[in-house]
Amino acid sequence: MSITIIGAGLAGLSAALTLAEQGFASNLVSAQASERAQSVMAEGGINACLNTMDEDDTVENHFEDTMRGGVYLADPNAVQGLCTHAPEIVRKFYALGVPFPTNENGIIQRNFGGQKKKRTAFVKSSTGKMLMTALIDEVRKYEAKGLVTRYPHHRLVSLAIHENKCSGAVIIDTYSRQRTVLSGGVILASGGMSGLFDGLTTGTTQNTAETAALCLEQGVALANLEFIQYHPTTIGISGKRLLISEAARGEGGRLFVRRNGTPWYFMEEKYPELKNLMPRDVVSAEMVTVTAMSDCEKQVYLDMTGIDKTVWKSRLSDLREQCIHYLDIDPVKQPIPVSPGIHYFMGGIWVDEQHRTSAKYLYAAGEGACQYHGANRLGGNSLLGAVYGGQTAARTVISEMNPSLRATDDDVAYTEVSPRFRAAVSAVLGKYLKILREETELREAIRVLQELQPQNDAEERLLRLAEATAKSALFRTESRGAHRRTDYPETDASWQQQTVVILRDNELCITRRKLPERRTS
Amino acid sequence: MKLIIEILRQRDSASEPYRQKISYEAPPEDTVATLLSKLNREQELTDMTGKPVGRIEWQCSCLQKKCGSCAMRVNGVPRLACDTKLSECKSGKLLLEPLRKFPTVCDLVVDRSVMMTHLLSIHNWLEQSAHHTGKALELCYDASRCLQCGCCLEVCPNFFAEGDFYGAAAFVPASRVLSQLRREQPQDLSEFYRRNVYNGCGKSLSCRDICPAGIDIEQKLATSNAVAVWKRYFKK
User: Fold this and answer.
1) Does B113 touch chain A (CB under 8 A)?
2) Residue A300 scores a pLDDT above 90
3) Which end of chain A, C or N, has fewer beta carbons within 10 A?
4) What is the average pLDDT score of chain A?
């Protein structure tokens, strides 16, 4: 019996490899090839305490930065595992051939947002692509051995969940329309919910949010949907937001706004310690604040003109090419205009420390799972979280293997969300789920969503997920990390809990859930 | 700008392809990818004969030339739809066709899984830990950027989906692995490389300037040949 993995990006591949290395077979299901997964777009790097930069970094420092960056809304024991295993993960990728640059101590690391030490291993500004290439080749080895069976161009139709127990998945070949029933445990690794904000994110069009929507419909709990990361430095290009990697600031890039005609490096003035490298939620919110000031212009610029020539050549050449290609601006010579854009979903399918969802034998990992990042993710922790989450989910599956699971096709018709309907949902969420939120607007979002007319099951599901997201934002009456309420501007200690949403009797039921205490051993 | 868009459409792999012309107004700064998204969001779009256009099937993912998904023939040239601005289309006539070297699934969607099958059959992976050398660092980076989009195969006179020559979409990824081998740890890839790349490449270099990622393809071919055929491994 095989384990089924939905999604063949970094988390899915990581799960497949972990299973295969221990002799367990998996079905790797994806709508497109791994080369098309959003993981290939990750740019700046992957965090791990390798301590190669003579800064006395420790795993505890990584833990503290991650917890503080996430405003203490992450599971501390899960984060402990993440940070503890990070160095071996990065070293493994080096052994798999990722061309990390090195110094006499080992793999070179750069500064990144929200972290006090140089802890981010990188390959220029293309780290995700480099990890993916190496991992795709490694998993291929096990495909040849028959331990990984790919189902390319397949999509998830439904999960076989009965009495809160998942016994498999029904998938469909998008080329032949043939359906296949796969029995056994299922790991969901199909990415974040960009599909709720079509054209408004830095992500891919393939992160449709349909897996999360299906989970919600099938009674699986989702969590922290209101925590949506706006990355400070994005630019609008044809059809989407283009990310300018945090590496730009990690290597010395500075943000300014013209105030009374002269550049004001507001982050440096307001945050003298971390300056431009404050966590993303803080930087994005500050950008909104300063551009609303009467003596400031409306546009923030990223000034990279002070970055050393050798750094451009060895570490940022791809980022420079990108700016020239899309903006027709050479960032070596001229600051570039940037504004915040949706980049990452901290929330998603609720999972415990071992990546179990609320349904038995159903697991989730990667951006689609709500784990590690709390109220705001640190740059460099997403690649790490995807790899470690995939590994952890795989190990949990192995420990809970149940060969008696048998799934059947429930013959639910396969439907798709039309581009028009997705655009309509996205227009509402994009308008109201901004960096700064407040009750009247969130209520308006819910009202407008409820007026939309879904034409099939997939559209109905997506709409319900959109409504759950807006309702989660309304439910959390505090400001924390990426969720900022102008009507509740303070962080409230009593809200150091997850927002959990589940469908009961066709009603969205939103509750709070306490986080586990940090284990001492 | 006013466009006359001609699309080679096909309902499914068994159907006959047909050409459909649509007259449409779009901003010149839009990409072909954005144009296709917009066409699919139109409620009652009709072609120039007044027939409903319906949903145009095509593939995309990242929309910023990092994933290779949206490769198609644009005015006869294989390109990424997300990397082709309408302003490049001076005549206002835009011809969109699926890649020809792969079986058409429907409309602009082709089945490119043969590229993955090829990489599997040449054993494109490391049997041992990577041997990192300063000299190969940039090469590994560049080779690892391959999108598996298939544009290089589309223009190659020696590549056919059923043939024994696997083309640049195989030798570029292979160059990454080959450059990380040690002399004392050779592996199957070298032998397969000779069979499925070296022996079949006509050195026409038609793939040279076509790569949407701008990979230096000639360098990868030279490197792969040097290691796999002439056993010149990277030492430091």
Assistant:
1) yes
2) yes
3) C
4) 97
Q: Determine contact: B152 vs chain A, CB below 8 A.
A: no
Residues of A annotated as catalytic (active site), given as ranges: 280
Residue-by-residue DSSP string for A396-445: HHHHT--TT-------PPP----HHHHHHHHHHHHHHSSSEE-HHHHHHH
Reported as a single tens digit per residue, the pLDDT across A442-478 is: 999 999 999 999 999 999 999 999 999 999 999 999 9
CB–CB of A474/A443 below 8 Å?
A: yes
Question: Helices B168-178 and B217-224 meet at what angle, rounded to 10?
Answer: 60
Dihedral through CA A454, CA A457, CA A461, CA A462, nearest 10?
A: -50
| B 173-192 residues inside an 8 A Cβ radius of A | 173, 176-177, 180
The pTM is what?
A: 0.97
Q: Residue B146 corresponds to which amino acid?
A: C
* Centroid of chain to Cα B26: 26
pLDDT confidence of residue B235: 86
Q: Is A205 on the interface with B (CB under 8 A)?
A: yes
Which of A342, A345, A341, A344 has its CA nearest to residue A469?
Answer: A345
Domain A233-340 in CATH 3.90.700.10: yes
Task: Encode pLDDT of B151-169 as tens digits.
Answer: 999 999 999 989 999 999 9
pLDDT digits (tens, 9 = 90+) for B56-71: 999 999 999 999 999 9
Q: How much is the average pLDDT of A311-320? A: 92
Q: Identify the CA nearest to B110 among candidates B120, B101, B118, B121.
A: B101
Q: Do β-strands A369-370 and A348-350 pair in parallel, antiparallel, or remain unpaired?
A: parallel
Q: Picking from A67-76, A423-432, B205-214, which range would have the lowest pLDDT averaged per residue?
A: B205-214
Which of the residues A133, A154, A418 would you substitute to probe the B interface, choosing the one with the greatest number of B C-beta atoms within 10 Å?
A: A133
Partner-chain residue, chosen from B30, B120, B132, that has the shortest CB–CB distance to A144 = B120
| Torsion sign across C-alpha atoms A370, A204, A128, B185 | positive
Query: What is the per-residue pLDDT across A401-423, written as a single tens digit (0 to 9) for each?
Result: 999 999 999 888 999 999 999 99
Nearest CA of chain B to the CA of A416: how many Å?
A: 12
Q: Which two tokens stand for residue A166?
A: 């998942």
Q: What does the domain layout of chain A look like in residue ranges?
A: 233-340
- B34 touches A: beta carbon within 8 Å: yes
Domains and CATH numbers, chain B: 2-110 (3.10.20.30), 113-229 (1.10.1060.10)
Among the listed residues A249, A237, A313, the one whose alpha carbon sits nearest the alpha carbon of residue A287: A249
Copy the structure tokens of residue A61: 């420092």
Q: Which residues contact A75 (CB under 8 A, 6 or more apart)?
A: A352, A353, A371, A372, A515, A516
B208 pLDDT more than 90:
no
Mutation for A interface: B62, B108, B145, B146, most A CBs within 10 A: B62
Helices (H), A195-294: 210-217, 247-250, 266-270, 280-291
Instruction: Check if A144 contacts B (Cβ < 8 Å).
Output: yes
Residue whose entry in the numeric block shows the structure tokens 């099938």: A218
Judged by CB atoms within 8 Å, which residues 462-521 of A form the interface with B? none
Mean pLDDT (whole number) for A379-400: 98
Contact status, residue A112 vs residue A246, Cβ threshold 8 Å: yes
| 8 Å CB contact of B62 and A242 | no
